[in-house]
Amino acid sequence: MRTDTPQTIYRKDYTPPSYLVDTVELGFDLDPARTIVANRLTMRRNPASAQREIELYGEELELVALRLNGKTLGKRDYRIEGNLLRIAHAPEEVTLEIETLCAPEKNTALSGLYVSNGNFITQCEAEGFRRITYFPDRPDVMARYTVMLRADKERFPVLLSNGNLVEEGELGDGRHYAKWEDPFPKPSYLFALVAAKLVCQEEKFQLADGREALLQVWVEEGNLDKTDHAMQSLKRSIRWDEERYGLELDLDRFMIVATGDFNMGAMENKGLNIFNTKYVLANPRVATDVDFQGIEAVVGHEYFHNWTGNRVTCRDWFQLSLKEGLTVFRDQEFSGDMIGTSSGRAVNRIDQVRTLRQVQFPEDAGPMAHPVRPDSFVEINNFYTVTVYEKGAEVVRMYQTLLGREGFRKGMDLYFERHDGQAVECDDFRSAMADANGRNLDQFERWYSQSGTPVVQAEGRYDESARTYTLKLSQSCPPTPGQPDKLPFHIPVAVGLLGASGRDLPLTIDGKELGTTAVLELTESEQNFVFSGVAESPTPSLLRDFSAPVVLKYGYSDAELLHLFSHDSDPVNRWEAGQRLSMERLLKLTEVAAAGGELSLDDTFVEAMRKILTDDTLDPAFREQALLLPSESMIADQMDVVQPLPIHTARQFMRAEIGARLHNELLATYRSQQTPGEYSADAESIGRRALKNLALAYLGATPAEQALALAQEQFSNATNMTDRVAALGALIHANAPAAPDALNRFYDEFEDEALVIDKWFAMQATAATTDVAKVRKLMKHPAFNMRNPNRVRSLISSFCAANPVQFHAADGSGYAFWAEQVIALDALNPQIASRLSRAMDRWRRYTPELQAYMKQALEKVAGQTKLSNDVREVVSKALS
Ligand code: 0A1
Ligand code: ZN
């Protein structure tokens, strides 16, 4: 916790490290209260640096001894200023020996070395290693590590670190040791150790080149019945990277460790991935379909980092998207390939588009907006964002859209050929893509440097006599903090033209036949694209497969949207047409609700929904997506002044109307989409359950008794967690008399399953009937724990981010609660506090009355004298 004014760090100020590190030998005497860390570094001056002092970072450490080339340094031989320890006048080559003390059990920030349920765990990205020992803790310093772990054998029978186990044995006095060696040079943020009481599921796995690797998934005792899916996902990830990118596992051993206390999803430490239990533990009894899918994606993500992140890493933290955008893109492609079918892929893509619109677009339009490669930050932990991750993945996807799959692969190959073992920049990736394909991608750089979501405006004109269709595309980008004016982006716009029959028309531009989907390259502020030989006036299908992270504007008529909703061969755009139809209506209904008018829904829309619902030629998973209404936050995003209550009223009305007017079809769907027999997490079964449970939710939105009876029956008889929570959710959201009892039964049955109890808290936190008083009461529940990030997210963050009606209560009570919790959390865990503080990002978009309360709450937090850099940066940007 710092009280001085936080410093802004700029990308332009980057300088190379003064010294490079060749080897690191770490010795740990592990004790929760007082751990001794002995660190022996061999370093040499970096010829690329003008700076001659050794610079080591350290935080929350007690320095015991410091020796340089064997000689103990006295107080006059070095200086400690804040987090920096500087040694001047050092020779070219040095061996530094540093002994420090730290207190893992007091580490509630969960950064560095900490204790989770009695086990030692580390988290070093981004700057946690400096909380373990003094070190040039920056990603462009890559070194070879040897690690000796010593601990009590009974309490910590398992001792793990990166790389290969080279020695283990007894020490007498009940202690034991293990020595690990990582053959690959790595930055300090990839260091990890685990000393714990754990058990593992393990397997030998044959790699493409014939080598065998040992794969392990480590969990606490009692959880071995929940590791299988993670292990299967890991094996699939290894195969996929071999097949799709020719990338092999480079170690003899690959370990995954699950911990219940973790700030993020998981971490790609070399050979020793550490995971939040949420992304490891699953079986049908405790995990939902979404959990199963999340595990596959995150296991893949961390595994793929081994090449995109670890073998080739980031020069500095401004380049974070170099590894994150690329690795998210890789995990998205992996998930798509695992589903296999084209409609399954589309459903996967629709999920990505939804996240982007629901979370990233608002970020790009708010006070924390930043480019994919930021130019400055106060606290790097605040930049693990949807912009760096998800928009970054869209940027990588655009290379593939522009260059084709093969061209993209060529670029990847060249990237590894050039940069294996190096710490590089986003520009190096772009150059590899350009050079491997002989293309100029200079303008593409703006996707990295300019923040904000571009708006593409489209207009079409059909010339009957010339049989041409001219598509005029123009682009602009709204101002964002520090960037009032933007230059045009290089935007791939995938386009199809539908004839009156609903079929795609063949596309020709400048005599070139382009099939039925053309990727137009919009590079100017305005451009015309002329399609020739167009036999009839078409309906344009624009931005197919969401070919760029932009807002697309086109003055579609209802008739055109209905045409696309029924016929578009691009499933993403087919879904998109439905979203546009619902959004238009939701916005109008919101207006009427705000004015206290009477709400009504047109038949045309209901009929379109009926058609999709009953079209058995469509995959259930796709139907579910197409029938799902835009969320309240997405509706809010379209409004100039946000009024949470009318939005909620409008959306609830629409749900109830659909539920009532399609009652018979929903009921029939509910019955036909059952998945009897043993649970399976394949895409088809997941789709059927999703559609069935959506039908239940719609039915539950009506006052019909029958729906509640169905929900109650499903709740009691469910044989998997997906159906169980869907039923419980239906009861809670309908405020059914049976809901409280169901909640109690659910709790009693799953009391010992922390991840299920998280769901129990989250479902209550997001119910429209749960007000601040109820949340406060839940915080007093014995199962609530302010130190556990998953629990805090499930109750406090869910309430603030996903219960808009109550969070934005007219009396400002939600905001006062928010301020109180941000302050309380900040004293324990600044990263978690800072995430929560983002709930207030877009406060200027609300009504003046709400704004006044929000400002007051923000000022209360900002006015604290003791505040972390993390929270300080977020609230001061919100207020500025
Ligand atoms: N690199 C990890 C995410 C991660 C980032 C920061 C952390 O602690 C502050 C932990 C994990 C990933 O992308 O999966
Ligand atoms: Zn990552």
From TrEMBL:
Family note? Belongs to the peptidase M1 family.
Species whose genome carries this gene: Massilia horti
PANTHER family under this entry?
PUROMYCIN-SENSITIVE AMINOPEPTIDASE
InterPro entries according to UniProt: Aminopeptidase_N-like_N, Aminopeptidase_N-like_N_sf, PepN_Ig-like_sf, Peptidase_M1, Peptidase_M1_dom, Peptidase_M1_pepN, Peptidase_M1_pepN_C, Peptidase_M1_pepN_C_sf
What is this protein's record name?
Aminopeptidase N
Q: Which GO terms describe its molecular function?
A: alanyl aminopeptidase activity; metallopeptidase activity; zinc ion binding
Q: Where is the Peptidase M1 membrane alanine aminopeptidase domain?
A: 230-447
| Pfam families the UniProt entry points to | DUF3458 (PF11940), DUF3458_C (PF17432), Peptidase_M1 (PF01433), Peptidase_M1_N (PF17900)
Q: What does this protein do?
A: Aminopeptidase N is involved in the degradation of intracellular peptides generated by protein breakdown during normal growth as well as in response to nutrient starvation.
Domain spans labelled Peptidase M1 alanyl aminopeptidase C-terminal: 558-879
Catalytic activity, EC: 3.4.11.2
